[in-house]
Amino acid sequence: MRGSVRAVAGAVAVVGLLSAGLVQSHGAGALAIGKCAAYGYAYDYPSVKQAEAAARAKCSDRSCNQVVSTQKGCVAFAVDGRKPCGPNGYANAPRLGAAQNTALKHCYKYGGKDCVIRAWICDGKG
Hints:
With 126 residues, the protein is α+β, with helices and mostly antiparallel strands. The chain has one domain (23-122). The chain is 36% helix and 36% strand. Strand 4 and strand 5 (83-93) form a beta hairpin. The longest helix has 21 residues, at 2-22.
């Protein structure tokens, strides 16, 4: 009896592991950027177009006209911490650290003095 219970439990575990590999994760994400540090985000969507629409819909004040999207990567948004309505920067990259570093560089490039990461996303594979 114990042998058959173990066999069934083993078979269930194998089927669970195999089916987990069959589930596809989506690979599109977007960050919508608006005025005064407003943003909306979306990740793990089936397409870039769907991710962009979802990010715009989640914008905190509906002013998000700039959308940065990614497939199998990350997006970061930086603002000047003392002047959130002032300089900002954003970037996408294959890895989160690279996206954040580039977003901060752009924020400083456009006049930021105290730039910080405001938001970031990585899609299912980033």
